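Researcher: We are triaging several targets before committing to wet-lab work. For this one, the compound of interest is zinc ion. I'm pasting the protein sequence and the ligand SMILES. What I need is the predicted three-dimensional arrangement of the protein with the ligand bound, expressed as structure tokens, so it can go straight into our comparison scripts without reformatting.
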Amino acid sequence: MMRWMRRGFRRRPHDPERNAAEYVTGELSKRATRWLEAHLLHCEDCWREVLLGRLGRRIAAEAREQASAGLRDRVRGAVQFTSEGGPAGPAESLGP
Ligand SMILES: [Zn+2]
């Protein structure tokens, strides 16, 4: 196990999933960011996690935008409908 450890422990121990997650969300400190960016050049595990993290965030953001656009249309439709038939309810209570 851990073949790289036998080679002299020259590399800083890394946690690809956590490092990458913190990197793509901007939670890493400036020093840790610099270290990780240098580290990514020769560590395929961390590089892959960063790519996956960015891709995942983009998909999540797009899904959220589409969902909220659909919700806005539904809210608008509901508001138009209720304003024709009577007093409009508080649309804000439907959530973000
Ligand atoms: Zn790494």
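Researcher: Any quick observations?
Model: Residues 13-82 form one domain.
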